[in-house]
Amino acid sequence: MTTPSPLVLSQPDQVIGRLQGLGLTEENLLHAARRWHVAWSGFTANHPPFGIGIAAWMEAVAALRETTMPLGWVRSDERNYALVISPDGAMAISVATGDAGTGRPDTSPSNKAPKGVSTADAISVNQIQLELDLPVPELPSSDDDGPLTWFLLLHRAHDEIRCELSLPLEMSPDGRISRWKERLILSSIPLDGDIIEVIAPEGPDLDIDVKRKA
């Protein structure tokens, strides 16, 4: 059986139109990519290396939530699986570091670090929702219901940050996504020595009750 190729959109007008249909803007996603990069850039050789990727990922997740929650999206950390979910509950986004194929329409990217049960569950739900019969690793699964889970893949190349929003269909036994249903290639962010400006998203002011200690 021939494996269908993913739908890959890379032309800016196509990507913007598709994102609008998903209730998103490209800026929602690029803001997360810029914050991710700035977090990376703040570390030095003196920082413990095992924590750098996690800290940058956490910053990207927070940034994505900050730009989408004013649009009605909601955060979810169920089973410690960090997502942001669309207002109608039909779509979720997970953030992950991608390999060198990220953001290139001529390749098939994957997540850089192996994923576990929660990602396998999410991809299984994608298959069910899309009525596909494809293999996923046999891992414990607690629920077949849920949103379609897309991945915001982020990759730091020598001279640019490449990123894409893509819908996975298969995961290999080693925990890496091996097949995609749809890929939206986002604008790359050049790393040419210029300062990357990160603008805080607009939103309601937070009222913080500050009291002096007695």
Termini separation comes to 74 Å
Please tally the β strands and state the result. Answer: 8
Provide the succession of SSEs.
EHHHEEEHEEEE
User: How many distinct helices?
Assistant: 4
Give the percentage of residues in beta strands: 15-25%
Model regions low in confidence, pLDDT < 50 over at least 5 residues: 135-142, 204-214
Keywords:
214 residues; alpha+beta; 8-stranded mixed sheet; 8 strands; disordered C terminus
Provide structural commentary.
- Helix 2 (26-41) packs antiparallel against helix 3.
- The chain has helices at 12-21, 26-41, 49-68, 117-129, and strands at 7-9, 74-76, 83-85, 91-97, 148-156, 160-171, 177-185, 189-190.
- Helix 4 links the parallel strand 4 (91-97) and strand 5 (148-156).
- Strands 1, 2, 3, 4, 5, 6, 7 and 8 form an eight-stranded mixed β-sheet that branches.
- It is α+β, with helices and mostly antiparallel strands and 214 residues long.
- It is built from four helices and eight strands, in the order βαααβββαββββ.
Short recap of the structure:
The protein is α+β, with helices and mostly antiparallel strands and 214 residues long. It is 28% helix and 22% strand.
Give a topology summary.
Layout: E1 7-9, H1 12-21, H2 26-41, H3 49-68, E2 74-76, E3 83-85, E4 91-97, H4 117-129, E5 148-156, E6 160-171, E7 177-185, E8 189-190
Parallel strand pairs: 1-7, 4-5
Antiparallel strand pairs: 2-3, 3-4, 5-6, 6-7, 6-8
Helix pairs in contact: 2-3
